[in-house]
What we know:
It is built from 8 helices and 2 strands. It has helices spanning 7-26, 37-56, 64-103, 121-136, 139-153, 163-204, 210-231, 233-249, and strands at residues 110-112, 117-119. It is elongated. The mean pLDDT is 81. It is found in: Cell membrane.
Amino acid sequence: MALTLNPAWLEALMLASVRMIAFFVVAPPFSYNGFPIRIKAMLGLGLALAVSPRVASTYKSPDTAGFITALVLEIVVGATLGFLVMLIFSAIQSAGSLIDMFGGFQMAQAFDPQAMLNGAQFTRLFQMTSLALLFVTDGYQLVIGGMIRSFTALPLGGGINLSHPIQAMTAATGQMFLAAVQIAGPLLVVLFLADVGLGLLTRVAPALNAFALGFPLKIFLTLTLAGAVYAALPRIVAALAGQAFSQLSGGG
């Protein structure tokens, strides 16, 4: 029995798998180091096999130098799209960092080698919760679906127009900071008003040393009110997954 392979299809499969693997190495939730690199490679290859009939129909086989250049371009495209998704989901991590900073938890920060994250308690808690919610709410399927649709906006071997992803990253960075403030905003306002109240109390009665009492008070307020922010994380993760899908579908 003779087995024949279409060279153009094989090249398209390799290019698609390279883009997928580069994307999974950078984009959450697949970038978490708890997923072995071989699992990311197998997932990228499997999804490349799924989309290979569609991408191979419009793929034109170049020469050897052109194919090597296309491989490098696909790595850049996958990593760029993955970085764009990482920027979008960094809003939750940034919100946790703001809560840690204003709540007095920043001094207890530590480095998490699995998530490659340096932060305190709420930063790591929000990061781990967002990763779990991406799988529980099937948000990861939106991320994968957007990545698959990127092959329509950015055909194989065509490279990427840097003006579009740079503009998208600039907008995503601004949206990240805005979303972080919106997520942690109510709690930050309460903590700020607590500081103002303690300052006024110190002016009225300096002997009370109100700021010494402020640390346990701010910790109590943070632990009490952070539950409301934590309860809203499922809706926030769903909204961010939809935003990532729309960005990937447009090719960045």
